[in-house]
Amino acid sequence: MAVFPSGACDQAPVSLGSAASFAVLAGSTVTNTGSTTVTGDLGVSPGTAATGFPPGTVTGTIHAGDTVAADAQVNLSVGTEEIRM
């Protein structure tokens, strides 16, 4: 059994910026084939295709190829890099 000093494995929270509100964030396409419920925003960038809504539902906003989705992609990349450091 490994024993670590208190705080040795603590990871600082990663800031996702504008990507934090997205439940689904894709690069090219989001395809739904059923009665899926997405709780939060759904975004696609640089692609623009988000199909299958309805029958699926999104409680947030669908951002397909707009600047909001593009900004979220940038913020997600920055957050991913923070994790790798």
Question: Can you characterise this structure?
Answer:
This protein is an alpha/beta fold. The chain is built from one helix and seven strands. It has one helix spanning 67-84; strands at 22-26, 29-31, 37-38, 41-44, 49-51, 57-58, 62-64. It is globular, with a radius of gyration of 16 Å.
Task: Give the tags.
1 helix; 85 residues; two-stranded parallel sheet; 21% helix; alpha/beta; single chain; three-stranded parallel β-sheet; globular
Structural class: alpha/beta
**Chain-averaged pLDDT:** 87
Number of strands: 7
The SSE order reads EEEEEEEH
User: Span from first to last CA?
Assistant: 27 Å
Order of the strands making up the biggest sheet? 1-4-7
What's the total helix number? 1
Shape: globular
Beta-strand content bin: 25-35%
Please mark out the parts with pLDDT under 50 across 5 or more consecutive residues, or reply none: none
Q: What is the helix content?
A: 10-25%
Which radius of gyration do the C-alpha atoms yield? 16 Å
Q: Biggest sheet, in brief?
A: 3 strands, parallel
Summarize the structure.
The chain is of the alpha/beta class and 85 residues long. It is built from one helix and seven strands. The chain is 21% helix and 26% strand.
Layout of SSEs?
Layout lengths: L21 E5 L2 E3 L5 E2 L2 E4 L4 E3 L5 E2 L3 E3 L2 H18 L1
Parallel strand pairs: 1-4, 2-5, 3-6, 4-7
